[in-house]
Amino acid sequence: MTRRQGRERSSEADGVTFEEILVPTDLTERTVKALDFALRFAGGGRTRVTLLHVIETIPGLAFGELKPFYQKLEAKADAKMAALARGAARGKVEAEVAYGPRAETIIKFATARKADLIVLASHRVNPSAVGRDWGTISYKVGLLAQCPVLLVK
Prior knowledge:
The structure is a single chain. The protein is of the alpha/beta class and 153 residues long. It has four helices and seven strands; from the N terminus they run βββαβαβαβαβ. The protein has a five-stranded parallel β-sheet with strand order 5-4-3-6-7, with helices on both faces. A two-stranded antiparallel ribbon has the order 1-2.
């Protein structure tokens, strides 16, 4: 137990449970750390942890025109997410691929799944150029999500 501002707190989540944790991924190694945090919050076997990779579609072109291209991207994403899920130290991890604008699609997916928590990797912000990082996916998701968002750096 630790003392903070005169209250005792346990190092655990104080009974907070999550049923649906979403881990958006760009398929880089940074996802491993975000997934590890998500699995720590998942606790028991009742929580569903879902990796989500969003493939950005090209505006102005019909999906069917580039379908073979998108299918190759999806196959690579599926393989990479399967490897991430297998490498998870604990817990069961599902994987999904979605298409569309990344931040918007992540928010729609989280809403449809009734996500309790979104955990995603982010980069460190340069304090001398803070405004430059406001257009990132993690920043947009952090602002627009209707559930708590944990940015893992």
